[in-house]
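Summary for the steering committee. One of the milestones for this cycle was to obtain a three-dimensional model of the protein with guanosine-5'-monophosphate bound, which we needed before selecting residues for the alanine scan. The sequence and ligand used are listed below.
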Amino acid sequence: MDQSDIGSDLESVLLSEEQLSTRLAEMAAQIDADYAGEDLLLVGVLKGAVMVMADLARQLHHPVEMDWMAVSSYGSGTKSSGVVRILKDLDADLTGRNVLIVEDIVDSGLTLSWLLANLRSRGPKSVEVAAMLRKPEANKVEIDVRYVGFDIPNEFVIGYGLDYAEKYRNLPFVGTLAPHVYAE
Ligand code: 5GP
Ligand code: MG
Ligand code: MG
């Protein structure tokens, strides 16, 4: 899927494919350095983190393991409540492991803060977070996101894993939606 396939539903491109890949390479180099000689398990949070996980993992030199979790956050359509349900749990036992949670976006941080507490209760050696995008709201919660791709404005974004009503996840860039899409 590309810009021509979304047509007038797209308002603007916020981060191009090239910007995303350049930044991911920098993040990967830092992760390689930080975990040199250490075991590392990447935990991708479905479904939004699929693109970040695939691209970040391929830019790493470190021989990581990858596992997946799916969670649903109760709340109204646009705001998460912090009450989270596990839809798919990890296959891996986290005991003594270095865990790096890979996220698409941190907005209120409520989902992530629940996830951090949950994974930390499983006896890992360490738990850190890599997020491609972070919104200003995230500053209100006490979460240390060790690796951040981009700090973005408080706008609803789509693409590169992020959906609007389950669509547009397969855009290779991050963009904003035209207002007429919400109005439909
Ligand atoms: P939080 O608990 O941090 O508020 O919510 C995180 C989740 O909300 C993300 O994993 C994502 O699924 C969704 N989300 C937050 N902001 C956006 C956005 O701008 N666009 C899209 N498509 N999803 C978002
Ligand atoms: Mg997510
Ligand atoms: Mg979504």
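Key point for the committee: The chain has five helices and nine strands.
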